[in-house]
UniProtKB/TrEMBL annotation:
Chief location bin: membrane
Species in which this protein is naturally found: Iris pallida (Sweet iris)
Stated name of the protein: Aquaporin PIP1-2
Ranges annotated as spanning the membrane: 53-72, 92-114, 135-154, 174-198, 210-232, 259-280
Superkingdom of origin organism: Eukaryota
């Protein structure tokens, strides 16, 4: 009990920057009460033969399916309303998407990590948090789940779906392609940076006295990014979400600027991974002590 009280009292000052950083922080001799997960191998043949690998892929498929179903249904319903006040509006869409991500990440985090987004998977791959084999499998399952989710919405309300754009991501006529790309890059950076921070082993140990769920800040990140970028691109920040809606709707407007919703999120995810690993955690640098 005394040790626990001491941990609470010291709090954020327990791990000062004078202690070893980067790869030196991974040693047992450092005396820290957390262990940095070892880098994932690029290829791991053994995991392909395990049931947990496929179970994780199924979890990503189902989560992406549910995410697209709720997202597209909410967008179509909001556009169907006779006025902004009569429907959920922009804030309602943002709350629906952010709340759904919170729920789905909470449900799947212990099975697959709760990525539900190829950009998140890509960022974690660059940080060596999972193997290339698993990353590719996750991305395929996420895209398939997204396509199925959008298809179910279309089957339920085909007329409204066709007339109201099918919940696709499109660049607003008031913005340039560069503006749309920048919005996607920054929005995805916010999301992936939050994912890294919320799941950081060091933060979990340092803030063990703070009862917070990792899915909560992730869901809020999605919420605030949607508030900022819905008027610009409809908010992609998730290539699977953009692809699923575009394939099912399959009209010219859905494909005109579709590249933005792949290039932008992947650049944003890469920048977030580099910033967190190189600057925040200083992982490539060893202590000179």
């Amino acid at each position: 009990m005394e040790g626990r009280e001491e941990d609470v009292r010291v709090g954020a000052n327990k791990f000062s920057e004078r202690l070893p950083i980067g790869t030196a922080a991974q040693s047992v001799e450092s005396g820290r009460d957390y262990r940095e997960p070892p880098p994932a191998p690029l290829f791991e043949a053994e995991e392909v033969a395990s049931w947990s690998f496929y179970r994780a892929g199924i979890a990503e498929f189902v989560a992406s399916f549910l995410f697209l179903y709720i997202t597209v249904s909410t967008i179509v319903g909001a556009k169907r309303a006779p006025s902004a006040c009569a429907g959920v509006g922009l804030q309602g869409i943002a709350w629906a998407v952010g709340g759904t991500i919170f729920c789905l990440v909470y449900c799947t985090a212990g099975i697959s990590g709760g990525h539900i987004n190829p950009a998140v998977t890509f960022g974690l791959l660059l940080a060596r948090k999972l193997s290339l084999t698993r990353a590719i499998f996750y991305m395929v399952m996420q895209c398939l789940g997204a396509i199925c989710g959008a298809a179910v919405v279309r089957s339920f309300q085909s007329t409204q779906y066709e007339l109201l754009g099918g919940g696709t991501n499109t660049l607003s006529p008031a913005y340039t392609k560069a503006s749309g790309l920048g919005a996607e890059v920054i929005g995805t950076f916010v999301l992936v940076y939050t994912v890294f921070s919320a799941t950081d082993a060091k933060r979990s140990a340092r803030d063990s006295h703070v009862p917070i769920l990792a899915p909560l800040p992730i869901g809020f990140a999605v919420f605030v990014v949607h508030l900022a970028t819905i008027p610009i691109t409809g908010t992609g920040i998730n290539p699977a979400r953009s692809l699923g809606a575009a394939i099912v709707y399959n009209k010219k407007q859905a494909w005109d600027d579709h590249w933005i919703f792949w290039v932008g999120p992947f650049i944003g995810a890469a920048l977030a991974a580099i910033y967190h690993q190189m600057v925040i955690r200083a992982m490539p640098f060893k202590s000179k002590a």
